[in-house]
Every structure is written in structure tokens, then in C-alpha cells.
Write a structure and sequence with these properties.
The chain is built from 9 helices and 2 strands; from the N terminus they run αααααααββαα. The protein is mostly helical and 309 residues long. The protein has a two-stranded antiparallel ribbon with strand order 1-2. β1 and β2 form a beta hairpin. The two termini are 19 Å apart.
Length: 309
């Protein structure tokens, strides 16, 4: 495997481990129909942690899935950037590349990562909405496959692919733009490390701000038909959302957006953005730092191996 694959995989897994508790809050705020004030948000967030293990609810699928997603994202981004601009020799330093090409390469990486992100997001979303401490990512996945087959894992895949394509376009674009704005001629190693952390955090916030309404719709789309599997295999309906019954039709993305706007107003599309922004800054600061450090370390190891041959 290439250096960018392993650097992406490991940094992605690290990001999920750090950010899952706040991601849990974000998903439940997006799915809820009743939170409208900061005080209510705080009470709601506290009320949804049924046990200490709730903080890592739904983390198993993303740790494996998001590691693979991140690996695929960076590999496709790096290859796409080289195709768009033949002058690129080191994708981690695309100094002379037009920012629109960086956006396009990021969008290509986001679209490719949909193969992994769609089932991962669906499993994570439903595991995080569960109030049963015995319901794990694996039980959710097996329940979906048993009832809907493998194609059931791609429920909500269209809006997920749009979100990922647009979001990751802005992800790489904002990271590179921020780095260029902060670059100085006499930069020290400490300053360079701080720049990566700050730019990575800013890129995370910009990314989520650009696609948050899409993410809210995606969460509600994937959660609307959620029926929580019980320990004995019979269905239980104890999620945060009102459950769909066999007589009710599952709504599409546009219908969910219209319904949400009509009943809760425009602000519903940004519910949970504050929590998400805090998470995004921390996770992506660490993730970019890990990725760039791993790329240097792995590239140096490969170069040493080639010299010794």
C-alpha cells in the first residue's frame, strides 16, 4: 500500500476516536424535533447519555470505516490533483496549484469515498440514536442486511455522496488557502506545526459549515425508518424519532427538507452546528497533523528502504 493510504487510514481512525462523543451529540440534536435553546440543548445532551458507554456509541463502525474512507479520500485526492496539474510532485505541498483544481481534486476524493461513507454513516447514525446499551454497530449492520439485504446499507447514499463531494472539495480548498495565508519565509519547525493544527481545524469548520444543511437532511433521512432491534430479535421502537409504520411512506430527501422547514423553520438546518464546529476543529487539527507527520515518516522509511536495496 502507498504512504498516503496508510497515513490517511491511521489519521482517520485517530480522528474518530477523538471526535465520537461530540459527534454523538450532533447526530441526536439533528434528529431531535424539540431542542430550541442553548439551555435546552445542554439538558438534551446530558439526557441522552444513558450510560458512560453512550460516549462511544456507534464508534466501532466509523473507526474501521472512516479509516478506510480517509485512506481512499487521500489516495484519490492525490492522484486526481496530479492528473489536473502535471507539475505536482508532492501533493502535500501543492504551492503553485490553482485553488479551483484543489477543490475539484477534493470533490473527486469525496465522491470516491462515498462507497465507504454511505454504509458507515448509516450504521453510525442508527447506533448513536439507539438508547439500548446492548445495541452495537455490528447488531445494527446485521439487522439492516437481514431485513434489506446489502443494498440496504446504501440507504441515503445519494445525499451522502453530494455532501461528501461538496464538503471535501471545500475541505482541501480551505486547508490549502489557510496554509498559503499563514506561510512566512523564516518559518520555524514549531510555527510549521502550529500552522498545520490551526489550518486543519479551520478546514474542518469550513467544511461542515458548507454542507451542514445536507448533513441534517441525511441524518433525518437515514433515521426516519429506524426500528431498533431488540436483544431477542423482535423490533422495538425507542429511538429519538417518531417511527414509521408499515402504512407510512418513507420520505425522500427533498420531502424531508420541506417538512423540516415547514414545521421548524430555517434554523433547523443548522441545529447542532456549534457542537459540530468544536468537534471539527479539534478532530481535523489532530487529523491533518497526524496525516502530514505520517506522510513524512512513511516516505522517509520508503526512501531508506530503496537506498538499502
Amino acid at each position: 500500500m502507498s504512504s498516503d493510504f496508510w497515513a490517511g487510514y491511521i489519521s482517520g481512525a485517530i480522528g474518530i476516536i477523538i471526535g465520537n462523543p461530540l459527534d454523538l451529540v450532533k447526530v441526536r440534536l439533528q434528529a431531535s424535533h424539540s431542542v430550541s435553546s442553548p439551555e435546552a440543548t445542554l439538558r438534551f445532551s446530558r439526557g441522552q447519555f444513558e450510560t458512560a458507554t453512550s460516549l462511544v456509541r456507534g464508534a466501532a463502525a466509523p473507526i474501521l470505516g472512516y479509516g478506510a474512507l480517509n485512506a481512499l479520500l487521500y489516495v484519490v485526492y492525490n492522484r486526481s490533483l496530479k492528473v489536473l496539474d502535471s507539475s505536482v510532485t508532492d501533493p502535500t505541498k501543492p504551492d503553485g496549484v490553482s485553488l479551483y483544481k484543489i477543490w475539484l481534486a477534493g470533490a473527486a476524493g469525496g465522491m470516491a469515498s462515498w462507497v465507504v461513507s454511505s454504509p458507515t454513516e448509516l450504521i453510525k447514525c442508527r447506533a448513536q440514536l439507539s438508547r439500548d446499551p446492548e445495541i452495537s454497530s455490528w447488531k445494527v449492520a446485521s439487522d439492516i442486511i437481514r431485513k434489506k439485504g446489502w443494498k440496504g446499507l446504501y440507504f441515503g447514499g445519494v445525499i451522502t455522496s453530494i455532501r461528501d463531494s461538496v464538503g471535501y472539495g471545500f475541505y482541501f480548498w480551505s486547508y490549502e488557502l489557510c496554509k498559503r495565508c499563514m506561510t512566512s519565509a523564516d518559518e520555524t519547525a514549531h510555527q510549521a506545526a502550529m500552522k498545520v493544527l490551526i489550518c486543519g481545524g479551520i478546514a474542518g469548520i469550513v467544511t461542515w459549515a458548507s454542507v451542514f444543511p445536507l448533513d441534517v437532511i441525511k441524518t433525518r433521512l437515514q433515521a426516519q425508518s429506524f426500528v431498533e432491534p431488540s436483544r431477542d430479535g423482535s423490533p422495538e421502537t425507542r429511538s429519538l424519532l417518531r417511527q414509521t409504520t408499515p402504512r407510512e411512506r418513507v420520505l425522500g430527501s427533498l420531502e424531508i427538507a420541506q417538512q423540516a422547514y415547514r414545521t421548524e423553520g430555517f434554523q433547523v438546518f443548522y441545529r447542532g452546528l456549534g457542537i459540530c464546529s468544536i468537534r471539527a476543529f479539534i478532530v481535523n487539527a489532530v487529523q491533518w497533523a497526524a496525516y502530514e507527520w505520517l506522510m513524512k515518516a512513511l516516505s522517509s522509511s520508503l526512501d531508506s528502504a530503496h537506498v538499502g536495496m
